[in-house]
Design brief:
Blueprint (H helix, E strand, L loop, with lengths): L3 E10 L2 E11 L4 E5 L6 H9 L6 E6 L2 E5 L2 E2 L7 E4 L11 H5 L10 H11 L16 H14 L4 E5 L7 H18 L2 E6 L2 H7 L2 E6 L2 E6 L1 H6 L4 H6 L4 E8 L2 E4 L2 E4 L6 E8 L4 E5 L12 E9 L4 E8 L16 E6 L9 E6 L4 E2 L2
Parallel strand pairs: 3-9, 3-10, 7-8, 8-9
Antiparallel strand pairs: 1-2, 1-4, 4-5, 5-6, 10-11, 12-13, 12-15, 13-14, 15-21, 16-20, 17-18, 17-20, 18-19
Pfam family, one: ABC_tran
Keywords: ATP-binding, Cell membrane, Ion transport, Iron, Iron transport, Membrane, Nucleotide-binding, Transport
Family: Belongs to the ABC transporter superfamily.
Length: about 350
């Protein structure tokens, strides 16, 4: 049995079915990210785990103890679960010290020392403990919320999009700091987010959610490189999906002959490449007189964005695409380092590295 087991969870609000049978196993000390579009049921699932709501059916077992199963239901305050909400949900009338120590008894021995220790652990200066929440930055408020959740020594930490209100630089550093903090404390964590990069970089396990159910659950690397279907592929990042014929471990498609991760023979299939697998090398119109199997393209658009730029290229010599829907006349959209990005109008040689994934 895992540290947290969710079995066949369902939850409806009138005619709207928020959860349609959720199964998930979370191992002790790990980090799991639940990612999906707005309205797919992520926050509802978190509320059921926390104990704020009861499922219509299904079972929740935490560390061997049944939290919810039919008539059996353990209320939130008895579950030993910490929660950090999107906005921090700090008490505006309390000092930072009182916010952090809110779940601790007033007369508890060493309370002040414990509050100061928690502030230090989350990277807050002791001097701010006398301030009020409105006197802190967004990042500092999120650290206070995390310290408050940790004050109760939770068995499980739930993070409901806690970094979404932060600017890009702070968001990245805060995410890394929180991940290290929770790992060092040995706290099992579930993060709910709609940010794909956040889920992939934060978690040991990622669950992609859609319309109240999980489309796929696995490690970040497996889901990114071997998504189950096109929805998962495109939700977790930019994807190039191409029709192809497959035989002998290779696909014949509009990008040429590419190795694939399937030995099955399929006359009609779709393969997926991540944009970083498509390489561009500057050449010229004269340089297109190379070997017949070389593939060339023209840069039609280039959007400069500093370190990473978006480049659109139109293929110039398709090697026998398998059907009329092939991408020959549709630009390929790629992400390239800004310092190497070719200019509009340039001719480039196109090649593919690595293995393409065959979608179901």
């Amino acid at each position: 049995m895992s540290f947290l087991d969710l079995t066949a969870l369902t939850r409806s609000y009138g005619p709207v079915r928020a959860l349609a049978g959720i199964d998930l196993a979370v191992e002790a000390g790990t980090r799991t990210a639940i990612v999906g579009p707005s309205g797919c049921g992520k926050t509802t699932l978190l509320r059921l785990i926390a104990g704020f709501e009861a499922p219509d059916s299904g079972r929740i077992v935490l560390d061997g103890q049944t939290m919810a199963d039919g008539a059996a239901f353990v209320p939130a305050h008895k579950r030993g679960i910490g929660l950090v909400a999107q906005d921090g949900a700090l008490f505006p009338h309390l000092s930072i010290a009182d916010n952090i120590g809110f779940g601790m008894a007033r007369g508890e021995a060493g309370r002040a020392e414990r509050v100061a220790e928690l502030a230090y652990i989350v990277g807050l200066d002791k001097a701010i403990l006398k301030r009020r929440p409105h006197e802190l930055s967004g990042g500092q408020q999120q650290r206070v919320a995390l310290a408050r959740a940790m004050a109760c020594k939770p068995r499980l930490m739930l993070l409901d999009e806690p970094f979404s209100a932060l600017d890009t630089g702070l968001r990245s550093s805060m995410r890394k700091a929180v991940a290290e903090l929770l790992e060092n404390a040995g706290i099992t964590t579930i993060l709910v987010t709609h940010d794909q990069a956040e889920a992939l970089s934060f978690a040991d396990q990622v669950a992609v959610m859609r319309e109240g159910a999980f489309s796929q659950v696995g490690t970040p690397r497996d889901l990114y490189l071997r998504p189950k279907n096109r929805m998962v592929a495109e939700f977790l990042g930019d994807a190039i999906v191409i029709p192809a014929r497959i035989a002998g471990g290779f696909a014949q498609c509009s990008l040429g002959r590419i190795a694939v991760d399937s030995a099955d023979r399929r006359d009609v299939a779709r393969i997926m490449l991540r944009p970083e697998q498509v390489l561009l090398k500057r050449t010229s119109s004269e340089g297109m007189s190379g070997t017949p199997d070389m593939l060339f393209a023209e840069v039609t658009e280039m959007e400069f964005a500093g370190a990473v730029c978006t480049v659109a290229v139109r293929l110039l010599n398709n090697p026998d695409p398998p059907d009329a829907a092939a991408i020959g006349s549709t630009p390929l959209i790629l992400k390239k380092p800004g310092i190497e990005a070719p200019a509009v109008g340039e001719v480039v040689r196109v090649s593919v590295t690595g293995t393409a994934h065959v979608l179901e």
